[in-house]
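Fold this: DUF5677 domain-containing protein
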Amino acid sequence: MTYEFGNNAKTARRALPIARRLIAEGNVLLAPGLELPVENREIVRALAGWWRHVNVLSEDFVDRVAAGRTITTTPIFRSIVEHVYKMLWLAAEGADGLTVVDFSTWSNRKTLLQELVDPNTGEHRWPALEHIEIGTPAGVDLSQSSTDPEIARLRKLLAEFRSFNKLTARFGEENMYTVYRHLCDYTHASAYTADAYTEDLGDGRWAIHADAKPREGERADVIWLPILLMQAGLVLSSRLKDDPFRKQITRAAADYGVSVKQLLPVTLPATG
């Protein structure tokens, strides 16, 4: 049977079973241990970690949807979207991307630790981190602007990595940033999250419900989840020996009515 992919009830009904199958097949792939390539080992390690995180988050998402949850699935889906696009970005940028990821992680940690110190007394506001040292960046220090063209180029990549708007524009998928902004509305404290649990009954009376009302776009989240799982799987599999997950993804794509060739906005290397 040939399936047609679309934003409709038929596709939505196939989405969760296909997502569960991709997650389960990912677990099978992981069971004997992933053999990392000799080349680009650190890049593949990062991609593998993010891929696993995407799968675990997706399992939580599927379970919540199956349990009838509504807006509480949104922060999970938002994180899945972000991690998959960061995987695409790292796969495209390679060693430069890893340099940026490492620096960004170090820089965020540095800012956190500095803000934990009272500038007037020098005391730590959070004693649990009192003995953690900031250290130095593992690679290139991108803290300051520079006339060095290499530093300027890496700083541009850093700005791209830190801005989901710029990152999606890099792949010509600005619409995904619009989706991401909508997901943020239900992730951060907003009138949307308050309104989801309350109802105006008129005459100055309000009802507070135990469960949130559905959010517009929830079906689209469910429909897009298998796409994200396939994208993440392809990014990692292409870097592993013998491309071990491509067969499963190709079958899932056919069952979902999409083409594997259309899944990724970047060209991936055949092997690690």
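The first strand starts at residue 198 and ends at 202. The chain has a mean pLDDT of 90.
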